[in-house]
Amino acid sequence: MPRFRLLDPSRPEFSTPARGLPFGPDEILFLDNELPKGEVPKALAESCSDRRVFVSDANEETAEIGLERLDPSSVGFRLPPGSFLGRAGLAAEYCSESVKSGTVDPLPPFRPQWSGYLYHPKRAPGRAVPTLRRADGCRMQAHNVYYPDNRSFFVPSDYPLHCIGRLKVWDVPGSSSFRSGTATLVGPRTIVTAAHCMPRDGSPRKWGALFTPAYFNGISMVSMASWCEAYRMATTVVSDSTQAFDVAVMKLYDPLGEALGWFGSRTYDSDWEDESRWSLIGYPGYAADFNSGGEWPTVENGIRVVDDDPDGSFAEIEHMGDASDGNSGGPLFGTWPEGPYIIGVHSGSEYRTIWTPFGDIVAENNNVAAGGSGMVDMIRNALTNWP
Question: What is the pTM for the complete model shown?
Answer without folding.
Answer: 0.88
